[in-house]
């Protein structure tokens, strides 16, 4: 049974990145591989033809990724953080600075699960930290259950794209 809201939030930039990847695979990489496979197929015995075997494997990988990207884009719901009416609270697209008990600060941006990137401090909407921060205001304390244990964070600042102050 499908849930009534079978969508995943994503930022406009996140959807654009998915579309760009899809277009690149479909318009550039896949045609190149098809050309290699066609050429290799004309070279005779396919069972020992490395170009042919590698090309077929690569084409299956590309087709799988294209299928995955199409599914993700179909279920994506674009949420523009700049349109957030209440910018005093943490919602989708917020960039939040939090501090732990030792006053160690960390700044994260809450994005769609398919566009999260820990190395760029972008955390997924469904992550434990993002779930704990939802609806928080500056000064609020939030407890997060992480694999390494419970941690308490204080919300230090909240900003959204297009904010004059942020």
TrEMBL record:
Protein's UniProt keywords contain Transcription: yes
Keywords for this protein: DNA-binding, Elongation factor, Protein biosynthesis, Transcription, Transcription regulation
GO terms of biological process kind: DNA-templated transcription elongation; regulation of DNA-templated transcription elongation
Record-annotated Transcription elongation factor GreA/GreB C-terminal domain positions: 87-160
Keyword Transcription regulation in annotation: yes
Superkingdom field: Bacteria
Location of the Transcription elongation factor GreA/GreB N-terminal domain: 9-78
Family matches, as Pfam families: GreA_GreB, GreA_GreB_N
GO MF annotation, one: RNA polymerase binding
Chain's role: Necessary for efficient RNA polymerase transcription elongation past template-encoded arresting sites. The arresting sites in DNA have the property of trapping a certain fraction of elongating RNA polymerases that pass through, resulting in locked ternary complexes. Cleavage of the nascent transcript by cleavage factors such as GreA or GreB allows the resumption of elongation from the new 3'terminus. GreB releases sequences of up to 9 nucleotides in length.
UniProt similarity note: Belongs to the GreA/GreB family. GreB subfamily.
Protein name (Swiss-Prot/TrEMBL): Transcription elongation factor GreB
């Amino acid at each position: 049974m499908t849930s009534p809201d079978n969508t995943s939030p994503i930022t406009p930039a996140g959807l654009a990145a998915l579309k760009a990847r899809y277009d690149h695979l479909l318009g550039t990489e896949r045609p190149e591989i098809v050309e290699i496979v066609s050429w290799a197929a004309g070279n005779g015995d396919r069972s020992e033809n490395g170009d042919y075997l590698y090309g077929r494997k690569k084409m299956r990988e590309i087709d799988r990724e294209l299928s995955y990207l199409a599914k993700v884009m179909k279920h994506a719901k674009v949420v523009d953080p700049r349109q957030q009416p209440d910018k005093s609270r943490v919602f989708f697209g917020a960039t939040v600075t939090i501090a732990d008990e030792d006053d160690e600060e960390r700044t994260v941006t809450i994005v769609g699960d398919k566009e999260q990137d820990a190395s760029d401090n972008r955390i997924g909407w469904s992550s434990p930290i993002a779930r704990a921060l939802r609806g928080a205001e500056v000064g609020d304390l939030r407890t997060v259950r992480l694999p390494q244990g419970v941690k308490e964070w204080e919300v230090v600042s909240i900003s959204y794209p297009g904010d004059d102050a942020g």
